[in-house]
Amino acid sequence: MNALYLAFSYLRYHWGRSLVLVLVAALIMFVPVATQTLLSTSERALVARGEATPLLLGSRGSQLDLTMAALYFSEERPDPVAMRQVETVWDSGLGVPIPLHTAFSSSGFRIVGTTLDYFDFRDLSLESGRGLSLLGDAVIGAQVAEKLGKGVGDTLVSAPENLFDLDGVYPLEMPVVGVLAPTNTPDDQAIFVDIKTAWVIQGIGHGHENVVTAADVAAGTAALAEAAVVQYQRITEDNIESFHFHGSQDDFPASAVIIVPGDIRSGTILKGRYLDSESPTQLVEPAGVIQGLVDRIFRIKSLLDVVTAIIAVAAVAAVGLAVFLSYRLRAREITTAVKLGAQKGMVLRLLAAETVTLLCIAGSIAATGAAVVSRNAEAWVGWLLALGA
Amino acid sequence: MVHIENLTFGYGAGGFRLRVPEFTLAEGERVAVVGPSGSGKTTLLNLIAGILTPEAGRIDVAGTEVSGLSDARRRRFRASRIGFVFQDFALLDYLSARQNICYPYRITPALTLDKEARERAESLAAACGIGDKLDRHPSELSQGEQQRVAICRALVTQPGLILSDEATGNLDPDSKARILDLLFEQAALAGAAVLAVTHDHELLPRFERVLDFAQFRAAPET
Asked: Is the pTM of this model over 0.80?
C-alpha cells in the first residue's frame, strides 16, 4: 500500500508526464483491440447481409457495384434492368423477385423503391406508423428518422436530379407513414417507397394539376423571384387518381432485383439461365462477391497489422525509455530510501509500483474504450458501411 | 550509544583504507567529525549505519553489534534506531513537507504510521518552525526550511542516534548555527546522540567533542 501511495503521489505530482504516458500506453492497448473488434464486426455484418441475399439480378457490369447498390444502397448506379426480367422470374415459378430502385435520394439518404416483399424478406418491422399502401408513401429507417428528426406525419422531398428540370420532372413530396425499428444494417439509412413512387420521381409516371408552386409554399412568408416556379409534386387524395404511367411497365427500370429461390434446385436452375456472357443481364451470388471484397480488405489489413505492430513496438520502446528515465530520475530517492533503511523488496516495489499504476490506469482506460467499442460496434459498423456508400 | 573497536574498511585493493582502533559515542553526546576531504568521514557514518560492512572489527550501536547483522536486519535496525540528515536534504519533490517527514514510515514495514507518529511529525514541525508549511512541497520552501524538514524526518522515528553528513553545508552562515542548534535541541529532547560530519570549524565550539579524522586514514594496501 505504501509503495502504491508513493507511486500515486509521484504520478500525481508529475501529472503532465503521467498523463502522456497513460494516454500512450492506453492507445497502444486500445487501438489494436478496437480495430480488431470493428473489423471483425464489419466482416460479420458484410458477410451476413451478403449471405442473407441469395441471388441478385442486374444488368451486366461490375458485380461489386451491383451488389453494393442493392445490398448497401451505395451511390453506384448500375445500369438499370428492365422490369420484364422480374416478370420472367415470376413466371418461371423458381423464386420470388424483389425489384429495387435506388437511383434517388432525399436529404442525403437513399430512396429505395421496392415491393412489400422486401420488408418480409429482410424481416423489417415497424416501430411506428404503418407500411406502404398508397402511391407516394414513405417508410423510413431508424437512423433516417433520428438524424432528420422525422416521424410519422412528416414529409420528405426527393432531391432534384438536375438544376433546371428541363424535362419537367419535379421532386416529389412524400408523407412519412412509418418508421422502421433499428436493425444496424443499411436498411436503417434508407427511405423505402413503392417502386411505382420511384418511377414517379423519375418522371415515368405523373399526375395532373398536382404541382405545388412557390406561391403555395410561400403563403406569405417566403419571397421568391417568380411565383410560378414549380417547387415539387405532391400526391394527394384529390390527385392520386390522376397519376398514370406512360409506356409498358415491362420496360420500366429497376436498379437490381433480389431473387429468393424456392429451393436449392430452383436457385441452381436460375443461375444456369443467366450464364450466357452475351446476355445483357447477370445473376450474382452476393455472398461470393462480398466474401471476395472481404478477402481483399483483409489482405490489406494484414499489411496494416504489420504497420500497426511496428508502430506499437516503437511506442512501447518510447514508453519503456520514459519509464527507464523516470527510474534514473528517482535514483536519488532510492539512495535516500536505502540510507533510511528501506528493504530491497521495498525499493523494487517503489519502482514497480509506478509502472504498475501507470499500466493499471492505462489498462482501465483501454478496457473501458474497448468495452464501448464492443458495445457499439454493430451500430458504428452500420454507420461506417453507410458512410462508405 | 556507539562503540567501535579495531574497525578496518577498504574500497578494494589499492583503494582508500580506513582504520579506527577505538571510538565511543555516549548516549546524548554531540560529537563533530572533522578531517580533510576523502579521509573517510562519510564512510564511517555509513559503517555505523550498517550501509557498509567492515572488513574487520566490531561496531556496536545501542548495544547491538551492527556489523554482525544480516543485510535485512541492518536495514530494519537503521530504520528504527538511526536518523540521517544529509547535506543535500534528500527531500522528495513530489511529497509535501508532512509526507517527507513521514517518509520513513512509508518505506519501512517495521514502522507503523499511526496517529501518534503523525502527531509527533506535526509537533516536531511546529518545534522546528515549519508547522504552518507542512502542506508545501520542497520547491516551495527555502533551503533552511528544507533542512528543518530533513531534521524532522530524522527525528520522527525517535532514534537514539542522529548521523549528520554536512547537514549545514548548503546553508548560509546565519542559518548554519540556527539549524545546528535546532538539531541539537530536538536531539536532546529525544535523548539522541549526534555524530555530525562538518567542515565548518566555526561550528565546532557547539559540539561537546571533536573527532579529527586525519588520524584514522591508513595508507592504501599494495
From this structure: no
